[in-house]
Amino acid sequence: MTFTVTNKSAVPLSGLKVSLDNAENFTLDIALMDASLAPGESTTFTVSPKAELAQGSYQTNITVTSDIPDVVAQYIPDQVAPAEATMVCTVKTVGLTAAPASLDFGSAYTGYTQPEAKTVTVTNTGEQAVTLTQPASQYYDVITAGRLELPVGGKATFTVQPKTGLTAGEYSETLTVSGTYGVSADVALRFVVEQQSGGGSSGGSSSGGGGGGSGSAMYAVSLAAPEHGTVTVSP
After folding, report:
1. What confidence category does residue 201 fall into, taking pLDDT thresholds of 50, 70 and 90?
2. Burial, 132: exposed, middle or buried (Cβ in 10 Å; 0-12, 13-18, 19+)?
3. CB 32 within 8 A of CB 3
4. CA–CA gap between residue 72 and residue 7 (Å, rounded)
5. Are the CB atoms for 16 and 64 separated by under 8 Å?
6. Measured distance CA(183)–CA(130) in Å, rounded
7. What integer is the mean pLDDT of 171-176?
8. Which residue, 87, 83, 92, is CA-closest to 37?
9. Is the pTM of this model over 0.85?
């Protein structure tokens, strides 16, 4: 905060000094303050809360004094009395949470149809309103359903789904939803694309030594355990 000091007396003031009674939590900057003031002139200085203060309320009293001739102080003390001010700073918590904290879209073969979208809800858990930034992703479509300005306790909803056309591989990514005051919430995303096994010839099998193309296909096989005996499968 910037404070302005004005010489409202009829005499010049010199040796201006500023003091704080709570220098532990506040910083004083007098780099732009003049050392002396003629009648009617003004100058400024700034007082700021220190960084990373814990949640709570902080106050400091500010006193501005000057060097004046003894005769002035004796006969017109009301014109050269110290200037005083008070600064109060309230530190509020800020925070975001995302639920669920992870989304797993399972697996699909190449050429897949885009999986169904899933929903993430982000909540402002702090004591200060925040504005979110639209999250971006390389492998997932992220759509905002609602406003990005969140009051205290407010919620924003995002729908997430893997993009189409991804090649074979595992797509694990951290989606970060960030907001003002440096707050953020992360959601772990995962989707696996599997390569289709090689396809075979069409039209069934051929007999004898005929010359058709040959190939193989892979299929998933499941067996139910029998009540008696065992079952084996030949590839």
Report:
1. very low
2. buried
3. no
4. 14
5. yes
6. 9
7. 96
8. 83
9. no
- Produce one character per residue of 36-64: b if its CB has 16 or more CB atoms within 10 Å, e if not: ebeeeeebebebebeeeeeeeebebebeb
Task: Using CA atoms of 200, 201, 204, 206 in order, give the dihedral in degrees to the nearest 10.
Answer: -120
- Separation CA 23–CA 31 (nearest Å): 17
Residue range 123-139: average pLDDT?
94
pLDDT of 212 strictly over 70: no
Task: Tell me the chain's radius of gyration from C-alpha atoms.
Answer: 36
Query: How many residues belong to the chain?
Result: 235
> C-alpha 20: how far from its chain's center?
34
Helix ranges (H only) for the chain are 70-75
Cα maximum dimension of the chain: 129
Q: For tokens 């800020």, what's the residue?
A: 94
